[in-house]
Amino acid sequence: MSPWNPTLVGSFRLSKRKAHQCKWPRGSKATQSLLSNLNSGAQRAPYAMLNIFSLANGRLFQEEIESLEELSKFQPIWVDLDEPSVEEKRWVKQYYGLLIPDDAMDEDIEESARFYQEDNGELHIRSDFLIADDEEPRTVRVAFILNQHNDNLKSQGVLFSIHDEDVPVFRLLRLRARRDPNLITDAKDVLLKLFDADAEYSADTLEGIYDELEKASKMVLSEDVTDELASEVLGRIARQEDLNGRIRRNVMDTRRAVSFMMRARMLNSEQLEESRQILRDIESLDNHTAFLFDKINFLMDATVGFININQNKIIKIFSVASVALLPPTLIASIYGMNFDSIPELHFTFGYPYAVVLMIASAMVPMLYFRRRGWLK
After folding, report:
1. Scanning 37, 61, 202, 344, which has the fewest C-beta atoms within 10 Å of its C-beta?
2. pTM for the predicted model, two decimal places
């Protein structure tokens, strides 16, 4: 066995809620490090390896399988294929009799292509999971396959998950299942707990969005908003709007997956009640995303309004300058006419007289504008 151990790496990762329950001071470096690890992803093994999860004393334990012979030594309830290689797929097909389709993670949006049951009893669910990365928030398509009824295959009662990228929700569930006995009893529990953790992860991300919007709100409403500051705030708001939209789409997808499991009549009474609770949580998340969209729109309108005010100030300066220079322009135009009968044409002090008159004619409207407060 290689000394590289992703199980050990993953065991140090905590969700936001778990980190907040620890005894570290809020905002400490330890807490921030643990929270950032949820989105960072663990180092991948450079060789073919299956992650399988078995129940022991009510807890979920992870094993790393590096050969087909090792696979026969365990009876897992969950097999997780992260960026599966051709060899890993061959192991699954040879031992479990399960053929992983090449289009398992296609971006189909039709419900019939994402939630269906095969004639042989295989249940197929393709669902999206959120990765709230600061630099590039995104969703990852995960394909689930569960054989419920075909006792002739070793895949009966085993959940298979296939995805191309490490998902924070999966690490969160593994951590909880190792610590909390009797959290999971079978493969259907694993699937439900993943959707439950996804809803909680979305809720935590929404809290982060609200905190970022509060910072943007203070910048807009409490400071002298320059064009540079407004540009920065607009960028922040746009990023949070994009993330909020991804969360709304993600919870909608989770709702569809949980509803499909309920319609498939595959859940017992306790699992049905848990599914209803997940749907209630998702409903509250929908309402919160709508609230955040309203707050985002308000901040966007306020920021754009301050930009317009700054532009109007510039236009006002040009307008005031144009009006103030009209009288001097008129005087200069009159004395610039080439007529012999102009009275001041041969006046000795005509030039300084005209200059003083133009300056005075410009100062009078400027003093009037200042008294009216139009120069502020």
Report:
1. 344
2. 0.73
